[in-house]
Amino acid sequence: MLLHKTNDSLEAGNPPDPKILERADAVLEEMRQAGVLVLGEGLMPSSRGARVTFPAPGQPRVMDGPFAETKELVAGVSIIRVDSKEEAVQWALRFAEADPYTPIDILEIAG
């Protein structure tokens, strides 16, 4: 799974830069053509979300967004089916060519 991090502008509800979005869509199309893309979606700003925490066992706390730490939030997700971490890194690098300012976390899905 590729987790595309957000930024202050996206969190403020501004649309992505059209040129970056066009380049990212081209990478998603490459993934589709290669047969590795399972899912690719953008996410709404955290102001539209909520967070559930457990300050004490069995006592959930629900907190509406927005959330303060923008650098830890995700703006989009791409789920890919590849044979290795190295292949996932190569696809993440393709996204980095589209948007060199957005960090991408690569995580393996359990199961």
From TrEMBL:
The coiled-coil segments of this chain are none
- Every YCII-related domain range: 10-102
What SUPFAM superfamilies does the entry give?
Dimeric alpha+beta barrel (SSF54909)
Q: Which InterPro entries match?
A: Dimeric_a/b-barrel, YCII
Q: In which family does this protein belong, per the annotation?
A: Belongs to the YciI family.
- What name does the UniProt record give this protein? YCII-related domain-containing protein
